[in-house]
Amino acid sequence: MLTSLRQFVERRWVLALATVVLGFRLLVALAVVPPWQHPDEPAHLLFARILASQDTPDLSRRTDPRFERELLESMAEHGWWRHYGRPQPAPLPRSLTDAGLTVIDSGPVLYYVTAAWVLRAFDVTTLLGQLYVVRWMSVLLGIATLWCGWAGTRRLFGVELADVTVLLLAVLPQFALVSTGVAPGALVSLCGAVLWWQTAVLFTGGRRGYATGLIWLAALVGLFSKREGIPLVVMASALTVLRFWRTGTLTTRSLVVAGVAALGLAAGVVLLPDEPVRIVETLLAMLISRSMNPESVSVEYFERFTWTLLDSAWLYAGWMRYPAPISWAWLVRALMVVSLAGLGLVAWRHRRRPSLPIGLAVGLVAVQVAAIYAVHFRLHIGPQGRYLFPVLAPLLVLFWIGLRAWWPVRKWPVVAAGLITTLILLDLVGWSAVLIPIYVG
Q1: Which of 111, 261, 318, 337 has the most CB atoms around its CB within 10 Å?
Q2: CA 64 to CA 47: how far, in whole Å?
Q3: Which residue pairs from 420-429 have beta carbons closer than 8 angstroms and sit at least 24 positions apart in sequence?
Q4: Ordered per-residue pLDDT tens for the chain, 441 residues
């Protein structure tokens, strides 16, 4: 028993350390970032607040003059217009739409229903009280994302690589911001991490039937939470087909789990009857009805779009108004370029015997990236790095594998220590040079 306990501690102390580090940084983010300074935070809380105020579920009510007036007054009190780069109007607008923002009038609603249930469960009715309750919900989702990402990486690549990547995630500034905001992105990121974890179980001889069911559960929760979750369904489909192709059989347990997943989907359709239609209509409108924006057809825009997507995955605070210092950004860009070249080197070394774990990571990331370019790039919609976070764990895995490819195995611990130290310093610079001066003064 003592041996088992010792092995448990030895294998998970880095995960515990990463959890403490991330938890501390999330607390700092909660204290530093004022209300309404995360993208679309007012609109997200407005809809959750409307649902929480209702005695019966009515998803058709998306605006409320009284709630919006109180929200706009709070936005003015906490300097929203100043941080957004606009003069504060006098008098204040009467609605979010008049302020130039949009309300949640389309898209999946599971996140908002869940947030409303949490608000009712804690019986919180004040505006800022509700804001911070839902922000704390994002904190818990962020920590769970860290754990699930580590579990999947450890199973596919071993504990050493999992420890490196979980520490990288723990000091990633943008992840701390996303994990303390009111938005469905934190839930979709957790769904992606669960899918990654269960993908590892599925392809490493675990309980494959349960793994398949959890993969589909995560994909469906992501789908009904935000349009960013649509690629998770593509991943789940591809993983199911790949597993069947590799084994050529379906176990009884897999069939039972598939049936349960189908029943769960049917229940979701019954409880939220308009959601599947809305999701399909939105997807068709984005991919088929709307043609490519002429402004997207240029090399310059492709470069600008790509760098903005990558930069904002590391640090781009506020409503995409506060980037990291330019030297900070160029150092991170250099690391990413070196890592990408290193992945090419790894692919060449394994050309005769490709690695299944690396292939799984590349495949999941490729689906998410393709979705971003198929919609945001094609339609000339500004990219945000948080759209990559559903595949953050495999992304960090590939980032580290690409960097370490340039060094002999005996040097990897030293390289890992140098990389983590560098990112810790970058994180400190990000907070001391960007976030704290902007939001605290």
Answers
A1: 111
A2: 9
A3: 420/164, 420/167, 420/168, 420/171, 422/331, 422/335, 423/168, 423/171, 423/172, 424/171, 426/173, 426/314, 426/324, 426/328, 426/331, 426/332, 427/25, 427/171, 427/172, 427/173, 429/324, 429/325, 429/328
A4: 444 434 444 568 899 999 999 999 999 999 999 999 999 999 999 999 999 998 877 788 888 899 999 999 999 999 999 999 899 998 999 999 998 888 887 778 899 999 999 999 999 999 999 999 999 999 999 999 999 999 999 999 999 999 999 999 999 999 999 999 999 999 999 999 999 999 999 998 766 668 888 999 999 999 888 888 889 999 999 998 888 787 765 555 555 555 666 666 565 555 555 556 555 556 555 556 555 666 667 888 899 999 999 999 999 998 999 999 999 999 999 999 999 999 999 999 888 888 899 999 999 999 999 999 988 888 878 889 999 999 999 999 999 999 999 999 999 999 999 999 999 999 999 999 999 999 987
